[in-house]
Amino acid sequence: MAKAKIVVVGAGLMGLSTAVCISDSITNCSVSVMADRFSPNTTSDVAAGMLIPHLYPGTTIHQQKQWFRETFDHLLSICNSSEASEAGIHLVSGWQIFKAVPEEKTPFWSDVVLGFRSMTEKELKKFPQHKYGQAFTTLKCDCPPYLIWLEKRLKENGGQVHVKKIEDLWELHRDFDIVVNCSGIGSQKLTGDLEIYPIRGQVLKVHAPWIKHFIRDGDGLTYIYPGIYNVTLGGAREKDNWNLSPDPIISKNILDRCSALEPSLWTAENIKVRVGLRPSRSAVRLQKEVLIHKNEKLPVVHNYGHGGGGFSVHHGTAKEATRLVKEVYNVVIHVKWFRSPCRHVGRYTQLMEFWSLCLAAVRMVHVVFPRLMSGNWLMESNHVEDCQCETTLDKTSASWQNERKR
Ligand SMILES: Cc1cc2nc3c(=O)[nH]c(=O)nc-3n(C[C@H](O)[C@H](O)[C@H](O)COP(=O)(O)OP(=O)(O)OC[C@H]3O[C@@H](n4cnc5c(N)ncnc54)[C@H](O)[C@@H]3O)c2cc1C
Predict the structure, then answer these.
(1) Which residues cross the membrane (predicted)?
(2) Is the peptide bond before 115 cis (omega within 30 degrees of 0)?
(3) Could you point out which of 56, 138, 182, 240 has its C-alpha 20 to 30 Å from the C-alpha of 1?
(4) How many Cα atoms within 13 Å fall on the side-chain side of residue 229?
């Protein structure tokens, strides 16, 4: 049976996790990932990778919770396996603290993370500026290890990776049957989507191995997230700013704010600054589209626009994108199946025409040409007679002669 050729554009978190999900669940296909940047040079490499949901106003809470739960449960099972350290996934406990008591004390994701509860008075004493807090255990993906692990899993499933900048998705129609667009902020150019915009982020990656608990200010602007190899200090949010150069003023400001929450950070060493553009949208674009040029069609499945919360929902959205790819795949595979016998019928017809010509040529040489030469071709001018005359054996046979006499 013909194989469907699927290409995923993008090698960040979305591209790789979607490619792995497709190659895990659709057997009769080839999966390639094509991108101009791979780890450690994607936005996903800059992220802290904490599983704390970010709100998408254009998506129902029910849907967001489902994506978060699917992602959390999936990563928890990896975390409980021998793959955990290579994949860079670990459990981390800590506090989300608020200067004023929030209206919603129990967020929608509180029963997905582990051990969600309000902080005790004793715990809150560490943060004299804050009035209320939530304690819970969640998961964290360390990047680049997680991206490298995903790429390895894709290759184990037979997937391929190619470094290439795509100028137009249509250029892929010659070599692939289905395109999956996971190009993050690159989608603005690739699809002309005006709803997606960058929110510039800047973080510090520091060496402070004594930090074991996360601390997040409820406004989401200041955070301390310990990872396996370093601690991520944040952050910054600048809408529509495309500048990827680190800003030293923002770096100082981040260190000041984080050290106010955790004074031991003043002694942190090996400070590295990273900048990334969150691919932001009111809702993640998870959608099928068919590109049409002249009479040709190219099915595309989009999975981009995860903003500041990609890690928290990536497996859920990869599963949803895979479901859309399966729908497209069923159509593509039928078209391929239909086309291949047609092609054979076409070849068969050509072959039959060739044999007809050969037979006509043989007939010319053996029947018509000798008659022309002997000059009695006029006698045979009646076409029907001519056809009957060809059966010379019958005409000379006894039964035929008897028939003529009668
Ligand atoms: C500072 C910061 C901190 C963050 N912290 C967290 C966090 O703690 N938790 C959380 O859940 N989320 C966090 N995020 C958000 C998260 O990083 C993003 O949602 C996620 O990384 C988006 O992944 P992506 O694969 O869509 O995009 P990207 O990682 O940007 O990948 C896009 C890919 O598409 C490719 N591409 C684009 N255009 C083209 C083209 N024309 N041709 C070929 N290839 C192309 C790129 O090369 C790249 O490979 C954070 C983000 C930032 C910036």
Answers:
(1) none
(2) no
(3) 182
(4) 17
Please give the DSSP secondary-structure letter assigned to residue 312.
H
Distance CA 283, CA 317 (A): 12
How far is residue 111's CA from residue 290's CA, in Å, rounded to a whole number? 39
Cβ–Cβ < 8 Å for 182, 304: yes
Q: What is the pTM of this model?
A: 0.85
Report the distance separating Cα 385 and Cα 368, nearest Å: 14
CB 201 less than 6 A from any atom of ligand 1: yes
Torsion of CA 114, 231, 21, 66, to 10 degrees: 30
Largest CA distance in the chain: 129
For residues 235 and 250, what is the distance between their CA atoms, to the nearest angstrom?
Answer: 8
Residues 6 or more apart whose CB falls under 8 angstroms from that of 4 comprise 26, 28, 29, 30, 177, 178, 329, 332, 333, 336
Cα–ligand 1 centroid distance for 155 (angstroms): 21
Residue nearest to ligand 1 atom 19, measured at CA: 310
Q: Which of the listed residues 7, 8, 18, 42 should we mutate to test ligand 1's pocket, taking the one with most ligand atoms within 8 A of CB?
A: 42
The alpha carbon of 148 and the centre of ligand 1 are apart by a number of angstroms equal to 15
**Which residues make Cβ contacts (< 8 Å) with residue 78, sequence separation at least 6?**
84, 87, 89
Residue whose CB lies within 8 A of the most ligand 1 atoms, among 311, 313, 315, 317, for a mutation test: 311
